[in-house]
Please model this.
Amino acid sequence: MTTSIPGPELPQVLSVRGVSKAFGAVQALSDVSVDCRAGEVHALVGENGSGKSTLLGIASGSVAPDDGHVEIGGRALVRHTPAAARRLGVGIAYQDYSHVLGLSVAENLFLAVPPEVRPAYRRMEQWAAETLATFKLDIAASATAASLSLADRQLLEVGKALLTRPKVLLLDEPTTALGPDAVEQLHTLVLEQVQAGVGVLYVSHRLPEVLAVADRVTVLRDGVGQGTFDAAKVSEDALVALMIGRPLTVAFPDRDPLPEQAEVVLELSGLQGDRFGPVDLVVRKGEILGIAGAEGNGQVPFLRALAGIEPATGGASCGGVQFDRRSPAGPLRAGVVLLSGDRRGEALFPVLSVRANATIQVLRRLGRGGIVPRRAERSAIASLVQRLRVRMASTEQPIQSLSGGNQQKVSLIRPFLRGDVKVILAEEPTQGVDVGARFDIYEALRAKADEGVATVVKSSDPIELAGICDRVVVMSRGRIVQEIPRHELGERRIVEAIVGSRASVANKTAEASAP
Amino acid sequence: MKRGFLPLVLMTTLIVALGAYAEVHSSVFLSKSNLNSLLLQSMPLIIVSFGQAVALLVGGFDVSVAALMTMCVVVASFTLTPTTTGLAIVPGVLAVVGVGIGAGVCNAFLIRVLQLPSIVATLGTLSVLEGLSLLLRSYPQGPINTNVTGKLVTSVGFVPVAFAGVVILAALADGWLYRSRSGLALRGVGLDARSSRRLGMPTSLVVVLAFVVCSLMASFAGFYLAAEVQVGSPIIGNQALESIAAAVLGGASLAGGKGSFFGTLLAAFFLTEIDNVLPLFQEPAEYADMTIGVLILLALVLYQAPELVERLRGARRRVGSGRVAQGEAPG
Model:
């Protein structure tokens, strides 16, 4: 491995040229180019879903591009597999890790190290302890990976990527579980590598953190490159302006201002689970509260804990009464309904008909003596199907033959049918939904709110949150870090809160930055 | 590894306990001839269970092994007839082994390339192999060369040489599995294929090899089955579930990534011991099946006891906090 001297003619260790990638109908990347020189930190920033992870996937060989090519250390990546990219000199720290949880830390390190520098098997434990010490990681080599805290798993992931002695190091959101001290520790480790001539492509949504160490920064928006800038000369404001500003393609229903002191429906005090909390929150009657944040900051576990799917401690009351969260049945009895973001896996029965999917929670009410007349089911849903504009040939059609948007509308029929719903928890309600159907879904949510339901919407789309919510809270590292009132709501305001440029988050990393 | 010894201890205890019980009630159990026949009787199951353990290690099943063993016996009745002598034996043996490798490649193709769940893929192979065996021999016929099979069952004292061989093989295989990089890689792929792929391991190759090895072992087991029945019978192999039982009793996890060849050997021997002992008491064979079923359930509970205890504790904690929360509720 060559140690390069910093200068203008540094060799390129990674060159991604004109890559495009589509997943189904979604164009994740179109004609994006980015490069990384030896000895520099190149930051890659963008909103959720702007294509950052896809780009890293292509650079690391786990995603094959539809078009364009990748060069690592001057050599073309021909076979798009992680093993091939590793051989050429790519080290990657995945956002969701590459640990084998059933094995020990030492065994995980041993599997990650390339054959040239691999120690003898019997020396594994000792070698692993030494390796951890050189990375200044306070982790026991004999501990199983499953027993590590999320922060330690994240640091170990970076350590594993470094073991391959990479020419280019790809970091995908490496600080989502780290506190300020651990972020500083990580940055020190990364900057040591940079000094030694490694190029780093650093994906993060935390602008202050990443700008503290970056030399250059590239912005992605909707899978399109928005330019590459000198990190020292570009302001956070300018970057945020490049990250936002997608054309507005969908309208939002009108909102009436909430009455001053609307009755509190959902009240949480110190709700805390494995990956989030403690959270204190109040949602009022008729209010739509948005939850914003970069992916993986505890938003989904938080909603699932409220719905009784994941364990959590602390108090949660609905209409002033604490509800039982040991299983999903408790929250449902209390009138708390989750619309899961995993429609196929959790929300719907794909092979059952539209009718069966809509009425499955209210069969007892519709039935007489244990027998449910089809007629009763059909008349119950007929008006709702029209009102939500569900497009289909017949209510007997299997729901999997409907488009994503129409599937979501059917799952929204359920809270309308129940009548006893007090809280709706909607996770990514318009994910995979075509633009035409979005308005219908927003309108349905607003209609339920106007009936007095308190609604919590978790969405990765700031435009959507700004358009439908009465108030938005931003989650980071599992906690609510900012609350944005109605009169301040806007895409820019939400994105700024997510990237932390206005947040009062302690930012000690500036001291660790390179000269 | 410490907890990995539990299956070994449990299986050894059961073997000794059942043996002692049998000896007390019928003095023939510990006779040299019975021990020799018991050890030989256990050979097919031990060998095929080794293969099954490999499939389980990568997180799969192979339910086609018994049908493959039968197929191998049937093929041997054509390629290793009593008139086969000298060098002609070599292609005869290779034909049987080739059938095993062919079935393994076929299974691996279905599982890896067509992405079928292993249990479904091997169920399909099972039916095809059963059909083929019946096509080739519709009833037991075609004697198999006893000169060849006789060599397989050579014994020193009451111990078959081959049994000593599988004991050594099991010890070596366990050493490899828990003391080498490639053994660790195999366990890694079984525990978490996605992470293993990300770490640059050839996960597809590992799974393909595992299923080929599994079928290859089944064909070796087929030779010992042939030595036992000595005729091309299309309806003899019933070791599919027993081989899974042996691997699981020996410490394999159905979720992949865990297992012990020595444990598998002991468990396979124990399962054969049950079959061997019951006739001594004139007990019907149905009891053997029931005993095996109950034992598997007990062993699984016992092996997972630490996790179960942990889960129960967690559940109690959650229930406790739930009660507190309810107590706070007004009204």
